[in-house]
């Protein structure tokens, strides 16, 4: 099984095929992730890492959804996708003119067919993209890097998780990076 480090830039990872659209980065494979189909076979990938990549891709909605479909297509059942992005309410996200799309846990969960069906049953307003695109993954974990001065206060016990959640909703630069681990479900959820 393959392991792909997509959009590797200069962050080469041992044991992975390091992929980038820019030959100047000297990746193992030069691939434009916004052009389909990708050069890997259906179900041939066991693990994908995308570190500070997905927020740069898919300014056009059809292209973004094409990337999601390709991620699903190339992954084997139970494959793991780790996505690290800057939080959309951080200067790291806002300052870079090449960032075209905020990536959030809520947005990634729109490709979870179990949650799609639950939302439909409850009369929710979320678009069931997993069902529409015939892709399915589950958010296995979500982790954030709390920035200073919030981190010291949280680690020192002066702030709770609820305080941080409230701060994220009301202030910029509380969270720096977010890391989401997705687990591919094939066949798609049938419940």
TrEMBL record:
Any one biological process term the GO annotation gives: methylation
Keyword Ribonucleoprotein: no
Keywords assigned: Methyltransferase, Transferase
Transmembrane segments: none
Domain Methyltransferase type, residue spans: 17-81
Molecular function in Gene Ontology: methyltransferase activity
Top-level taxon: Bacteria
Protein name per UniProt: Methyltransferase domain-containing protein
């Amino acid at each position: 099984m393959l392991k792909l480090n997509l959009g590797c830039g200069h962050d080469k990872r041992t044991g992975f095929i390091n992929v980038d659209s820019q030959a100047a980065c000297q990746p193992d494979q030069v691939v434009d992730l916004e052009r389909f189909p990708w050069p890997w076979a259906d179900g041939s990938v066991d693990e994908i890492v995308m570190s500070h990549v997905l927020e740069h891709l898919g300014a056009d909605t059809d292209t973004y959804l094409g990337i999601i479909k390709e991620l699903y297509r190339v992954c084997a059942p139970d494959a793991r996708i780790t996505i690290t992005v800057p939080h959309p309410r951080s200067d790291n996200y806002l300052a870079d003119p090449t960032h075209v799309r905020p990536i959030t846990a809520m947005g990634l969960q729109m490709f979870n067919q179990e949650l799609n069906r639950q939302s439909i049953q409850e009369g929710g307003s979320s678009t069931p993209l997993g069902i529409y695109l015939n892709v399915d993954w589950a958010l296995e974990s979500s982790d954030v890097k709390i920035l200073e001065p919030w981190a010291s206060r949280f680690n020192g016990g002066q702030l709770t998780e609820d305080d941080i959640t409230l701060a994220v909703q009301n202030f910029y630069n509380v969270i720096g990076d977010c890391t989401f681990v997705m687990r591919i479900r094939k066949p798609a959820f049938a419940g």
